[in-house]
Design brief:
Elements lengths: L2 H23 L9 H23 L7 H22 L7 H13 L1 H11 L4 H26 L4 H16 L11 H19 L4 H35 L12
Helix pairs in contact: 1-2, 1-3, 2-3, 3-4, 3-5, 3-6, 4-8, 6-7, 6-8, 7-9, 8-9
Length: about 250
């Protein structure tokens, strides 16, 4: 294992230790060895193993400050996941949940800025950031769906539905053009779910969640339309099967 992989593993261990300390301090909320603990540790293990594999595959020479920030966010998402899972069997401290969500959302605006300022922007870093965002939305939507209804799960599952379609249709995995609006919509969805989870805004929070879902449908829908059009263009210019190319005299 190279230096960068050891560095990533060190940060992963530190994040896991932090998660264990937080859960231990709030042991009355999330009892030891409960499903919440297991969910947190499983998330941290799987996400960090995938990150180290990604670093090794791309032969990265350094972890980078932006990735460290994203790993910090990922640790927070692991804790949030544990609380959400625990909420199915026991009452959790909503204040703690919201207190973890706020920095997880706030740091989302920091890691990309740091990457650009330090010249450490990488494809892996952008993918890591996107996957952390997606899982945070999934965890929050699972929690909020307990009170608002299963329709909220559409917010968290949309990204993964997109991936599943890509498994079936290879052309669906085409690299999409960069669009800052995706980041804005993701942030709005996270804020809306956090507001609904806090239960401080009543029906206004519910409307905010519905609006976030509408924005996500628009954003993903625009990407789907782009992919379908590119596919149609490729089919249109492709010669028919069995057709012989005309020879040039």
């Amino acid at each position: 294992m190279g230096r960068v992989q050891l560095e990533a593993a060190g940060w992963a261990f530190a994040g896991s230790a932090f998660a264990v300390i937080v859960l231990a301090v709030h042991g009355q909320t999330v009892p030891p060895l409960s499903a919440g603990w297991l969910a947190t540790l499983a998330y941290l293990l799987i996400s960090n193993v995938l990150l180290v594999r990604g670093l090794r595959h791309r032969r990265s020479v350094r972890l980078g400050p932006a990735n460290v920030i994203t790993m910090t966010r990922s640790t927070l998402v692991g804790l949030i996941t544990g609380l959400v899972v625990a909420s199915f069997t026991t009452a959790i401290a909503v204040v703690l949940l919201v207190a973890l969500v706020i920095p997880a959302l706030a740091l989302d605006a920091v890691d990309g800025w740091v990457a650009r300022r330090t010249g450490t922007t990488t494809e892996l870093g952008a993918r890591f950031d996107m996957e952390v965002d997606a899982f945070l939305l999934l965890a929050l939507s699972v929690y909020v769906a307990q009170s608002l209804g299963v329709w909220v799960l559409a917010i968290g599952s949309m990204r993964y539905a997109f991936v599943v379609v890509g498994w079936a249709l290879p052309w669906f995995r085409r690299r999409l053009p960069p669009r800052y609006w995706r980041k804005v919509v993701t942030a709005v969805a996270g804020i809306a779910l956090a507001a609904a989870a806090s239960d401080m805004f009543g029906w206004v929070g519910n409307v905010f969640v519905a609006a976030a879902l509408a924005l996500l449908i628009e954003s993903f829908g625009r990407d789907v339309v782009w992919l379908v059009r590119r596919r149609a263009d490729e089919v249109a210019v492709r010669p028919p099967v069995g057709a012989k190319a005309e020879s040039v005299e």
